[in-house]
Amino acid sequence: MPEVDHPEQSELETVVARTLALARRLGATAAAAGASIATGLSVTVRLGEVDTLEYQRDRSLGVTVYVGQRKGSASTANLSPPAVEETVAKALSIASFTAEDAYAGLPDAGLMARELPDLDLSHPWDLEAPEAIDLARRCEAAGLAVDARIRNSEGASVSTHRQLRVFGNSHDFIGGYPSTSHTVSCVVLGQSNGDMQRDYWYTAARDWRALDDVEEVGRRAAERALRRLGAGKLPTRRAPVLFAPELARGLIGHFVGAIGGAAQYRRSSFLLDAAGQQVFPPAIALVERPHLRGALGSAPFDGEGVATRDRDLVVDGMLTGYLLDAYSARKLGLTTTGNAGGVHNLVVQGAMLDAETLLRRLGTGLLVTEMMGQGVNPVTGDYSRGASGFWVENGAVGRPVHEITVAGNLRDMYRRIVALGDDVDRRGAIQCGSLLIEQMTIAGD
Question: What is the per-residue pLDDT across 102-113, written as a single tens digit (0 to 9) for each?
């Protein structure tokens, strides 16, 4: 394990160790505890004036105890010994009232992360409020200066957060690591001939030095808003649909939910029992790479202390397995995949096309840049959401369109992906470029 790089980590490890020892002494047959310290600064400026300024410093401890097959959990924001003792006692009390569950319990001891790789996740930003305010003002001002048609703003925000997390369980596992996340965002409104449109842009990174320039974020938001001015509707039709990378990432997110252990054992997934089946075209692969240095989805272990590892989740378009924590794995008669808490850098791979080639491949159809509503049925896969974007004619981006709906079924949509873009969005735990779907229903006038 890496050396402790902060005195607070030693403190949290002591709290976790004390919690586990206390749980055993009070009658728990197994226990897990996680303690964290989170600090942060967030500022939002609107029209040059400070709208919000927030400092954060939170401490928390969560403990789960097992008494045989009975489970109880409790949490506290007070890490003092008396508070810890009271929290453990509460968890044990809750366990005494719960029913036995044959699938409850810790993951197997052999799956714990005994060595923690250095993933370069912590880059604290020594940012004080005046500097953060100045950066937000510069971001917003750059957006407002792009064009006289940018008439208003919903604000520019700058935030920096650092978290130190330590987790342990009664398998003699205690591990922890610090991480940081930093963001700059801007939302502006354009107006022309009675039409008003809004759009946004943002940048996010573990290392603040890797953020885009704040002025570039503001300009990008303004350019996106200007492109949408004069948007109209479309007649209802069927046509190819190209999802911009930030939206394509959401489509893959629905896939992640459908192959999650809970959805599988509850029989509430449109990809029920799909392991071993063709779910994407043969040219597409999905891989999980939890140890990418500095990536936003990287982690040395999951929410249960299980070591994360590289995994090829979709190979030649075929699903190789599910995303499981210990409980769902037991329910399905399988082994946890180290995904308690979600995926860690799920990367969509395949032959990737540049923007010009991708638009030529689209030909005539819809480029979607924003979606509204939550019209997704996770059980049937039926998909129907409000959208806006641009109509593309013969590979050239044309007029902006809005107040339309794109509809299909996710299982069919995944199988009908015909091209990937090289414009990969890495601002989250899912890394994906643009996705071109062969045909969908577009509902308009």
Answer: 999 999 999 999
Domains and CATH numbers, the chain: 7-227 (3.30.2290.10), 237-443 (no CATH)
* DSSP strands (E only) in 12-111: 30-46, 49-67, 70-76
Smallest Cα–Cα separation from 261: which of 160, 191, 338? 338
**In this predicted structure, what is the pLDDT of residue 186?**
98
Q: Which residues contact 140 (CB under 8 A, 6 or more apart)?
A: 45, 46, 47, 48, 153, 155, 156, 186, 188, 218
Question: Residues with Cβ < 8 Å from 267, sequence gap 6 or more?
Answer: none
Q: How many residues make up the chain in this entry?
A: 445
Indicate the angle between helix axes 7-25 and 81-97, nearest 10 degrees.
40
**What pLDDT does 238 receive?**
97
Q: Is residue 334's pLDDT more than 50?
A: yes
Residues 43 and 47: their CA atoms lie apart, in Å, by 13
Bridge partners for 76 per DSSP: 61
Provide the token pair at 317: 């378009």
DSSP 162-197: EEEEEEEETTTEEEEEEEEEEEEEEEEEEEETTEEE
Angle between helices 214-227 and 129-144 (to 10 degrees): 30
**Average pLDDT over all residues of the chain:** 96
In the structure encoding, which two tokens stand for residue 5, read together? 């790089």
Q: What are phi and psi of 330, to 5 degrees?
A: -65, -40
For residue 26, pLDDT beyond 70: yes
